[in-house]
Specification:
about 170 residues; 9 helices; Arc Repressor Mutant, subunit A
Amino acid sequence: MICPYSLRPGQVKKQKKMNNNSLEKGLAVAYRLLSHRARTEKQIREALDRRQFTQTIIEQVVAELKRKGYVNDRQYTRDYIDFRLQGKPYGPLWLRASLLRRGVAREIVEEELHAVISAEKERKLAQLFFEQIQSTLDSREKAFRRLLSRGFSYAAAQKVLKEVDFSSEK
C-alpha cells in the first residue's frame, strides 16, 4: 500500500500552520471572540493587537467584520443599554462611562442614551432602583450616594428622595 506524504496508516497530515499575520488567522481569532459575546470595534482591535497581529491585518479583519455586520458599535450600544436597564437598573451617567471605557464613540453613546432615556424615564429608573435597595438603607445621605454611584443624576436622585420618610434618621 502506498501512503501519500510518507504517512503511516492511521496518521493524519497536519494542516499547514497559519502565520500569525495572516488574514485567516486574524478572522479566526475574531470569530472565536465574537462567539462568546458581542464586542466593540476597539475590543476586537485590542485583542488582535495583544496577539501581535500587524496593523494592516487588524484593519482588514475589522473591515471584514463590519462588512458582514458582526461588529456594529451602534447596535452594541443599544443592546448594552437595554441589558443594563433590566433588573437593578443603572443610570445614564454610569452607562455613558461604561460604554466609553469599552471604546464606543462618544457621539454614538450620546445619541443612543438620548433616544432611550428621557429625564422622566431616568426618574422612574431611579425610583425602581431605590425601591429595590430601600430596605438596606438607613439614611437619606446613604440613599443619595447609592443613587449617584449607580449613575443617576443629582436631579433624579433628589426627586426620588424628596417624598421618602427616613424616620429612623438621627
